Amino acid sequence: MKPLELKGKKFVASYSGGKDSIFAIYKAIEAGLEPVELITTYNEKRSWFHGMTENLLRKVSESIAIPLTLIRTPGDLYQENFEKALMASKERGAQTCVFGDIDVEAHLKWCTERCGTVGLIPYFPLWKKSRKKLVYDFIDAGFKTVITIVDTNRMPDEFLGQVLTRDVAEAIEKGGADICGENGEYHTFTFDGPIFKEKVDYSITGRSRHDKYAMISIE
User: What pTM value is reported for the model?
Assistant: First the structure.
């Protein structure tokens, strides 16, 4: 569905903590949609996929003034619990769900099916946009994001802990990795930008390695 057809509708956003989900929220607001809730899938200690702590996620929620709901779920109940959270958002007034996916068809299919099950309109503000242009537009808009996870089979761990600037993005691409990290090359935590009332402070508390993934712990 086109943005003009969604203008004025209330949305829940699938929020990971990373740059693409925040940028999608920003684009949805810019298009005239009204945010009512963030939902984040969460295991026992950290968010799925991006590894954010509850404390950091709630700081972002407070700074961007959108309530956050954590979906605490094991992997085998992930789909079921995600749909339950979407249904609860719908009951709170959400009409559409915003996702930050760019061009991975399997992600589009999964998200669209979840929304279809509960009767929400799926909206993908970044869909089929140029990956490189999205990275530069994100940076140029004033967003600040730190690289928290790196797939060391695709890019060196020297990028861990770096804030994503144009120079850093260009270095990632020059090294042969996707500039946007859409293939899982890297993940981020976005801590400042035009929809933040104030910057979210964080501390790097450690580094670790799990198989091919190098990561920093931030609190």
Answer: 0.93
